[in-house]
Amino acid sequence: MPLSAQALLDGMFPGRGLQTGYAAQDKGPDPLFKPVEVGLCMLSEPKASAAILKAAHGNLDEAARSERAGLKAMQAILQVRTRGNCVSGIPTCGIEDFGNVLVGGKGGVSLEGGLKAATTVGENFLLQYIQGFPEKDVAWGEAATPETLSPLLGPRNLYLRLSRQPPYIASRATARRWRARCSPRWTMLQVRVVPARRRAARHVPAASLPSWGATPI
């Protein structure tokens, strides 16, 4: 059972006895969470590429430079160098100078290179931290506190903003989940919208949450 998901469910619906579940791990990507990868929601390669480049203001490597401090901190931990994938044609480089490219494929397009590699490394360090590994085992003892770990997650956050969050991509990647959440049988969250005039008079936010109960409709 996914413990983090169960904890979230227990917190949202205390005392309801709701249980989480997950798809079998040996049957490939979950079509609910990976609809693009399994071919249920198709991406246009030109449109997806344009969306990512727009989010990067036209240049992937320049966008990556905004997280150079985090990438250099990661390189200081990894102490690895590579050939043939470096920006500006330099012969060898660390992860802070890995190039970034868009690669077309079955799922539309993917962002490959330094940011993706840094995302994998950063998420491994994050899992070590949140799973309570001994300090000496979190990034080899180099990122065992929020202060030292946070900079290493900056490249990951940028990668997700570029590759997952552009509206064209996000709308297709999450379409099946929203369809499931908004099914005619269940709504998990009631949202009451208060008109602006009444809101100003009563000093309440634009949307309030009167109930977290799972309510059949």
Q: What's the gist of this structure?
A:
This protein is 43% helix and 13% strand. It is an alpha+beta fold.
CATH class of the largest domain: Alpha Beta
Largest sheet, described in full?
2 strands, antiparallel
In oligomeric terms, what are we looking at? single chain
The named CATH superfamily of the largest domain? Phosphoglycerate mutase-like
Name given to the CATH architecture of the largest domain: 3-Layer(aba) Sandwich
Q: Topology as H/E string?
A: HHHHEEEEHHHHEEHEE
Determine the CATH topology of the largest domain: Rossmann fold
How is this structure best described in words?
The protein has 9 helices and 8 strands. The chain has 217 residues and is an alpha+beta fold. The protein has 3 domains: 1-30, no CATH class; 40-182, Rossmann fold, CATH 3.40.50.1240; 184-217, no CATH class. The strands form 4 sheets. A two-stranded antiparallel ribbon has the order 1-2. Strands 3-4 form a two-stranded antiparallel sheet.
